[in-house]
User: Fold these one by one.
Assistant:
Number 1:
Amino acid sequence: MKSHFIALVFFLISSLAQGLNPKCATQDHGSNLQVFHVYSPCSPFKPSKQLSWEEDVLQTLAKDQARVKYLSSLVAKKSVVPIASGRQIVQSPTYIVRVNIGTPPQTMLMAMDTSSDAAWVPCTGCIGCSSTVFDYAKSTTFKTLGCQDAQCKQVPNPTCGGSACAFNMTYGGSTIAGNLSRDNITLATDPIPNYTFGCLQKTTGNSVPPQGLLGLGRGPLSLLSQSQNLYQSTFSYCLPSFRSLNFSGSLRLGPTGQPLRIKYTPLLKNPRKPSLYYVNLVAIRVGRKIVDIPPNALAFNPSTGAGTIIDSGTVFTRLVQPAYVAVRDEFRRRVRAANVTSLGGFDTCYSVPIVAPTITLMFSGMNVTLPQENLLIHSTAGGITCLAMASAPALNVIANMQQQNHRVLFDVPNSRVGFAREQCS
Ligand SMILES: *[C@@H]1O[C@H](CO)[C@@H](O)[C@H](O)[C@H]1NC(C)=O
Ligand SMILES: *[C@@H]1O[C@H](CO)[C@@H](O)[C@H](O)[C@H]1NC(C)=O
Ligand SMILES: *[C@@H]1O[C@H](CO)[C@@H](O)[C@H](O)[C@H]1NC(C)=O
Ligand SMILES: *[C@@H]1O[C@H](CO)[C@@H](O)[C@H](O)[C@H]1NC(C)=O
Ligand SMILES: *[C@@H]1O[C@H](CO)[C@@H](O)[C@H](O)[C@H]1NC(C)=O
Ligand SMILES: *[C@@H]1O[C@H](CO)[C@@H](O)[C@H](O)[C@H]1NC(C)=O
Ligand SMILES: *[C@@H]1O[C@H](CO)[C@@H](O)[C@H](O)[C@H]1NC(C)=O
């Protein structure tokens, strides 16, 4: 008893000494992966320079802006190659999970992205990558795919100079190049043999998540397609609030253990962009009032790419101008009290404490009412509070701050997305 206690104390102290929260040491089990915010004490990607709250918000907004612009241009472009992994981005890999790659396993902290299909990791010798790389020479099961392999047809810009299936693509503000490869990976305790991913040899720019990307989109080269037998294209996550950095959320893969009581809305498919998770947002309520939004601001249109997507990589929800203005004006009217100021791209900020109305996203068949914690950001000093939404050029994006502390279930076989409140931080 006593020795257990001492062991526990020692464990706590040694964890603290490493700057780690005790929670970081716990292992992933079954088909459940812990999800960490990039600024979590468990993450090695915390900015080295401590930013002020305002600087941090402005930087996040700028990265978000780039991601949203890119997502919008993607869906609008008529010439987008219909296949897989192409021109995706993560401007801000907000949430990371542990993935074990190779034999023996090497652990990488990969960014989770629902709007991307591809998985890729920086490999030994990669020019422009961070210092943590996958050392493929140490894995006895690693294999570089050749041009004759069927999967080579699914990568963007394949080049077959040597025998390897080499590819390159743009990713946000970056370009990445590598060879299509295969190895066994393990997610929590689930082995996934012969997983096809990109082994990066070169990157430029700074949009590349330092230890790689785990795409959770639904295109042909995605994790969902490659683990079809195991996970049946079903997963859910609960994202921890970025205000409670000591907590981890969870990524639950496969149909087992998913919530039974959950509200659903149908998933829509845009043939031009098969990997994106489109849904039908039909109206928005501020408090009890349904605001007046022109129907075409929310309508799904596969030929222009307009509509609404659920995205794990964007931080703050974006609505196209007429929808955003309607929501914002009603929000301001309800808050009434004080003078409105702005902070970067946020135009509805207050320098006095406010009581905010809820905002309800009304999807077909499902209303999601967001409480204050999903709507407002507060400066650490308490000086300023902002409505954490902004306007977008062409596409409505339901972003991760508005999903925090909800279980979001992607049920691709039944073509639906579920939402339920769940306190995961
Ligand atoms: C790893 O992959 C190889 C083929 O690349 C396969 O034969 C082997 O069974 C796998 N090992 C494990 C432990 O899954
Ligand atoms: C990308 O691939 C194309 C061929 O598909 C090649 O012409 C181009 O030089 C490559 N770009 C980079 C940066 O490697
Ligand atoms: C990737 O491909 C290039 C050229 O095809 C080759 O020089 C390089 O050795 C390959 N790297 C790996 C890890 O297979
Ligand atoms: C993995 O690939 C190896 C050889 O490439 C093959 O022998 C094995 O059957 C494959 N395993 C699975 C589960 O596809
Ligand atoms: C996080 O955990 C550390 C160590 O366990 C503790 O010192 C710190 O106060 C915690 N922070 C929050 C916001 O709970
Ligand atoms: C609001 O702004 C007006 C004009 O700038 C100013 O006179 C007034 O004191 C402000 N009110 C508060 C509560 O800050
Ligand atoms: C959503 O809320 C509206 C009232 O604002 C109600 O009429 C509608 O039935 C609700 N939809 C669902 C699916 O509960």
Number 2:
Amino acid sequence: MAAIESADLPRGQEAAPLRRFGLPRFAMIRPAVPDRPVVLVTGTVRKPAQVDLADVLLSLGRCERRGAVHCVTTWSTTDLLWGGVPFRAVHELFSALVRPHPDCAWVVFVGLDGYRSCLSLADALAEDVLFADTLDGAPLTADQGAPVRLIAPVHYGYKSVRHVCAVEYRLTYDSGSASWLAHRRGRVAHEERGPILPGWMWRPVWRQLVPRIRRLYARNSG
Ligand SMILES: Nc1nc2c(c(=O)[nH]1)N[C@H]1C(S)=C(S)[C@@H](COP(=O)(O)O)O[C@H]1N2
Ligand SMILES: [Mo]
């Protein structure tokens, strides 16, 4: 399908349907959804804890938000209706349990596939960041990131970790799975696509990788 460049999309982005996508080395890792999912809450904390995801999702007020996935490689899927609980509320619950060091300024989200991505705690606590377990009213499928995924809609998609199984509070930034190619903040509006170079210079670098990554993920998705 030909990609459509639209005035409604952020700079440098083209519309595309949502399909499982990510770093090439994670394409082959499709974690099974656990019967009783847990989240490990850890890092520079007084007392790490393991919590039942069901307890987290049931004990907090649910909400729905319209949001997009904007991948740094220049495709975007907009108008997705995510349901879940605000990460802000999840963090309140977690921090009462584990007591993060007061200087923790970063948080890493880890997926069951081993993928890791870091947000500043301030960015993670924005009102629109969700711990999402439904998309358009239906439970997330495995390929969409079940049992729960982060949705950080103003950041590039690599911050929206699927299959979250651990949350790590940190004093310092950790570049995560994207390593030196990650941007600390990755804000779409500022085109923070990668380190050092301005965003528009990264566009062709990332864009030329999309067909190969799409093929790789299509071969390894349901
Ligand atoms: N667990 C996990 N989460 C991940 C990734 C991954 O490889 N593993 N890839 C990220 C990237 S780069 C993008 S663009 C989005 C894509 O979301 P989608 O798979 O729902 O299209 O997932 C993000 N979250
Ligand atoms: Mo991405």
